[in-house]
Amino acid sequence: MPNILVRDLTPETVKHLKARAHRNGRSMQAELKNILESAARAESLEAAVLSARIRRMLSGAAHSDSTELTGA
After folding, report:
1. Measured distance CA(21)–CA(15) in Å, rounded
2. Which uninterrupted H or E stretch holds 6?
3. What's the pLDDT score for residue 35?
4. Does pTM surpass 0.70?
5. What pLDDT is recorded for position 71?
6. Which residues are within 8 A (CB) of 68 and not within 5 positions of it... i.e. 6 or more apart?
């Protein structure tokens, strides 16, 4: 599994992350992994929701053939 190194966090940020990890009963590494995985899932979900919304908006509309635009 790949590793990630994050440099130059402020001491205040590290303090907040340690406190969050402690509150959640996790190590700092486990907490950071959870944060990153949650953020990645959320972004994927947002993209899927947006795609579904666009499909609904375009549903039933007449669309031109894209080859007409390219001149192919």
Report:
1. 10
2. none
3. 95
4. no
5. 66
6. none
Q: How many CA atoms lie within 13 A of 16 on its CB side?
A: 6
Residue 31, number of CB atoms within 10 A of its CB: 19
Q: 3-state DSSP helix/strand/coil percent for the chain, to nearest 5?
A: 70, 0, 30
CB atoms closer than 10 angstroms to residue 60: 6
**DSSP secondary structure letter of residue 14:** H
* Tens of pLDDT, residues 11-69: 999 999 999 999 999 999 999 999 999 988 887 778 888 888 888 888 887 777 777 77
Residue 30 near residue 21 (C-beta atoms within 8 A):
yes
Residue type at 72 in one-letter notation: A
User: In angstroms, rounded to a whole number, what is the distance separating the alpha carbons of residues 30 and 57?
Assistant: 41
